[in-house]
Design goal:
- By secondary structure, the protein is an alpha/beta fold.
- It has one domain: Rossmann fold (3-Layer(aba) Sandwich), CATH 3.40.50.
- 35% of the residues lie in helices and 27% in strands.
- The chain has seven helices and nine strands.
- It has a five-stranded mixed β-barrel.
- The structure holds hypoxanthine.
- Hypoxanthine binds next to strand 5, strand 8 and strand 9.
- The site of hypoxanthine has 10 residues, from strand 5, strand 8 and strand 9.
């Protein structure tokens, strides 16, 4: 049991999927896992452990933004020895060829700042995905026939952004989408020698201003959960 995760050591699987939204964790566990049990409800940040094709899997909400994700991922790694951590979330599309409902597999995550920035001082650390997971996710996405893009994303600290010039530079430099968590996940995985990946569904678009209607979010999200599970155990 840790400050933020009320589970016993054996309750958390080595493979953890991390949606931002705790109710997405519940939905994904009920939809894709067998024999699920609730392993965390501290602060309402629901976590469930079950099995997928016989493999133990935990699906734990991370909350929104890097400080929140950092708390859960630090505890999952340091106290529960999680080995493979895959964020499953949404992002805003940033390129004309990226459409709503497409899946983005994040190779790198650019930031202004992460909770780890003070540690790196003058260094610009480059948070990047685990290659074996990235490759397996790309293969899984292709076999699903999902429209998928692999490349760099932007992990921002703000949803309501007062600096559109930063987004413009990201678009200009080929960044595929914007979200708020992956860079810190990749940085912590690097620090502790764990495997990490972020797989994202495009839920809105910064250039076209389109947004996925809420009734269509679940089906798009499901594809991404299956890709994550197949990649974790490839
Ligand atoms: N900005 C930041 N995070 C997001 C967005 C966005 O437009 N869409 C989904 N997550």
């Amino acid at each position: 049991m840790t400050i933020h995760i009320g589970a016993e050591p054996g309750d958390i699987a080595e493979t953890v999927l991390l949606p931002g939204d705790p109710y997405r964790a519940k939905w994904a566990a009920e939809t894709f896992l067998k024999d699920i049990r609730l392993v965390n409800e501290t602060r309402g940040m629901l976590g469930f452990t079950g099995t997928w094709n016989g493999h133990p899997v935990t699906i734990q909400g991370s909350g929104m933004g890097m400080p929140s994700l950092s708390i859960y991922v630090n505890e999952l790694i340091r106290d529960f020895d999680a080995k493979t951590l895959i964020r499953i979330g949404s992002c805003g599309g940033m390129q004309p060829h990226v459409a709503i409902r497409d899946v983005i597999i994040a190779m790198t995550a650019t930031t202004v700042n992460t909770p780890s920035s003070s540690l790196f001082k003058e260094l610009n650390f480059a948070p990047s995905a685990d290659w074996s997971l990235l490759r397996a996710a790309a293969v899984a996405a292709e076999s699903h026939g999902t429209r998928t893009h692999v490349g760099g994303i932007y992990s921002s600290d703000v949803f309501y952004d007062e600096r559109p010039d930063l987004n413009e530079q990201m678009v200009r430099h080929g960044i595929l989408g914007v979200e708020m968590e992956a860079a810190e996940l990749y940085t912590l995985a690097a620090r502790y020698g764990r495997r990490a990946l972020a797989i994202l569904t495009v839920s809105d678009h910064l250039l076209t201003k389109e947004a996925l209607p809420s009734d269509q979010r679940e089906s798009s999200f499901g594809d991404m959960v299956e890709i994550a599970l197949e990649a974790a155990f490839a």
